[in-house]
Amino acid sequence: MPLVYYLLLSALLFIIGVAGVLLRRNAIVIFMSIELMLNAVNLTFVAFAAHWENLEGQIFVFFVMVVAAAEVAVGLALIVAVFRVKETVFVDEINLMKW
Amino acid sequence: MAINLSTILFFVFAAVALGAAIMMILHRNPVYSAIYLIVAFFALAGFYVLLNAPFVASVHIIVYAGAIMVLFLFVIMLLNLKHDPIRERGKIARRVFATLLVLILLAEIAVLIGGSILSPNSDGAIAAQQTIVGLANGSSDTTTVVGNTKAIGKELFTTYILPFEIASVLLLVGIIGAVILAKQKLTT
Fold first, then answer.
1. CATH pick for A3-93 out of 1.10.760.10, 3.40.5.10, 1.10.287.3510, 3.40.50.300
2. pTM (2 decimals)?
């Protein structure tokens, strides 16, 4: 497959992720959309790694996965902590830092 | 572009990934959203196999479908969320803003990638059996297939040893932070 098809696909996946972050109000679904965006970028990395016959892209994907895993652990812990206080995960109703 | 198995598989995986991603952001119930996201992740793993990256594909399945999405489902069920369409619906101005932003991004892609498809010398096809001749540090087995797990491991533990160790520290910090955040009650 030509590289441009992979770039187009990952750009579309990234846009779907952006739309999810902007349209949904549920913090967990917003988190899942962020994961989708990270994966769209990973697909770009692997596509370029195959295109340029270079392994560095795949190694970067490895590090992106590490960061994503740490981010999900901390983020979900934050959602649980906020849910304990506010009894909601809808971001419209979480305005602790607004004044 | 010749119609061969990898081309067909690409379009099948692309349809599955895009459909699952769209269903993920549209479905009202977060549990179904998580399941659709897992489907999209499996399709992405299929792309990694097509791109000669079996190590990335397997790690992707293990880490994302295996660990991260289980964590998501666990939290969704722990919080016992009822899906509430009235609270889910955002303000109308924000929805319009979001749609506009998405359309602008789509137009950007159309301009950027549409131009490169139409131009005659777009790019060479990614051959299925491309070989990489040696790594940057000149490893002994010079002819290794792209995505070879051995080559990735060698690179990871020589050139990228410092980022690798920093990543492990990052994971440790993440674990500690998650435990501390989830354990104690925040005070308002």
1. 1.10.287.3510
2. 0.82
